[in-house]
Amino acid sequence: MKALVYEGVKELKVQSIPDPEILQDTDAIVKVSLSSVCGSDLHLLNGYVPTMKSGDVLGHEFIGEVVETGKKIKKIKKGDRVVVASVIGCGHCHYCRHDEWSLCDNTNPNAWIPEKLYGDTTAGIFGYSHAFGGFAGSHAEYIRVPFADFGAFPIPEGVSNDKAVFASDALPTGYMAADFCDIKKGDIVAVWGCGGVGQMAINSAYHLGAERVIAIDRIPDRLHLAQTKAKAEVLNFEDTDILEAIKEMTGGRGPDCCIDAVGMEAYNNGADYYYDKLKQTLRLQTDRPTALRQTIQSCRKGGVVSVVGVYAGLIDKFPMGALMNKALTIRAGQMHAQRYIPHLLDLLQQEKLDSSYLLTHKWDLQRGAEGYKMFNDKKDNCMRVVFEP
Amino acid sequence: MRANNILISIIRGLFIVPQKRNVGSVERIASAAAGATLTAMALRNIRHTPHRLIPGAYLLWRGASGYCPLYNAIEADTTEGAEAFEFSRSFTILRDRKDLYNYWHDFNNLPGIMEHVTQVAPLTANKYLWQAQFNGQKFEWQAEITEDEEYKKISWESVDDYDVRNSGSVIFSDAPKGGTEIKVQVKYFPAKTKLGRLVAKALNPAFKQMLREDLRNLKRKMETNEIVVN
Ligand SMILES: NC(=O)c1ccc[n+]([C@@H]2O[C@H](COP(=O)([O-])OP(=O)(O)OC[C@H]3O[C@@H](n4cnc5c(N)ncnc54)[C@H](O)[C@@H]3O)[C@@H](O)[C@H]2O)c1
Ligand SMILES: [Zn+2]
Ligand SMILES: [Zn+2]
Known about the structure:
heterodimer; A: 2 domains; 30% helix; 22% strand; B: alpha+beta; Alpha-D-Glucose-1,6-Bisphosphate, Chain A, domain 4; seven-stranded antiparallel sheet
């Protein structure tokens, strides 16, 4: 079959590779119909998450049709149109049973790597480096879905493919970010990053009762969508002093909740960007935490900082003093897709949330490398390019 | 890097006592690698060991065995007693103590979670013959059950006429929030030389890692009935 394969830092190529097979009785094979890029892929592609190998297939945000099921599959069947959670959960361990699917004990064949890095294992994730299991990703004609009874969800009628594909990753991530904020009446939420994840966080924050949402980015078309589609008040960090502006917009208090939907490749026009970039290049720190620092600095006393932007390793100049003395709560994680997907599919069906506007480009998989370049460079108003294998 | 080859070399270096250098038979190496300790050592996972460790230990061994003077120098100084190396690893598994005990106690199950162990066959009521295959080579050894407390504890010890004495136990206890805490303790006695001790010391983390991976497989198997593959 055809697949978009990682060949090295910033190098992708469409290749012909063997079709996946059922390897365990709880597997299913899904014929991919749509497979999206995600900001997380950029961290891999740009070389900031180690343990990528030449030949790895990228992609973790996808929908498709079940074409084969293992002997023990009970809940889904051949022919089902399904959205698949980007994180793989076994459904049986302590964490899966407590709806903390991305913490699954049993789905990472390379559990020893995160155990070394982080002190314990994390769940496997499709197409997301060997530290997260070395599973083949979805930028291919077919994909093997382990523990498919727990990870693949039939898409209800009335939910289009263009909406459903983001229920795999961007939507549950944004929703979890807002859920972490424990939003109460009158709360103001600020969201750093207006990519797919940030957009979904803004929408979700309103859905969960936020009074106002402030969104921060520098890409004009993304800010425009945050404003028009998600109804956020927007700030461009390239021409605004963000800390000042946010204080002014919140009566001098600061937002009740600050969401980091940027992650380890944050950009900024101040000196600290170059400081962080240099340190990252020299591998003195692995991640650039500009946005994260701002969330902590801006947040009102006693507020919540919700981190769904991905960090892989170490950061520098973490404002621990602000966190401690303002008594902030910090919540973070890869998202627990399986916890949210059924509810989100309902919300999409009832049109209480919209995710389809994230899809700005639908391309043949053949143009995969070009698509990633456009997405990485934030060109052509690209929010998310989705491939049709 | 052919990790398994290197590992076998290391195990040779580690376990074959100098007086018996010519013995080198597969059984002895196996006994080395072995005992039910090998619980610990399904070599499959050696490639998962931190790279720093293996080459270090390997070079140590190679340097020592390749150059006679050095080897002799090290070997000459064999006054130290055989001090045991010990390590343990605990896992919490969301299954009843009884189920876990029963699973472990049926030694036929162990090859299923220890990839390189091909068979565990009873010789007498308490004695088992272990067979394993590492890197195309077959090994076997014997181990004896020394303690068996239903649903609580199983202990074993390698049978005497092997170079390496080793022993271990697995303890099952209820976890506070459900499930079972399983703890495996392993003790082994390396060759009575400084070299043996040095190499053993260097390799200790690798053995721990192997024990961890086998217990992880047990957890996967008992919780999901699968050992996940990518
Ligand atoms: N936790 C999870 O499970 C999960 C799931 C999906 C994505 N993610 C992560 O979420 C983050 C966003 O993903 P995405 O797909 O939206 O990525 P994206 O690359 O499309 O968007 C990131 C946005 O952040 C903006 N940005 C950069 N620096 C900034 C700064 N200093 N302040 C404000 N905005 C800044 C960029 O301009 C860009 O628009 C990534 O780190 C990704 O890895 C996490
Ligand atoms: Zn993602
Ligand atoms: Zn699990």
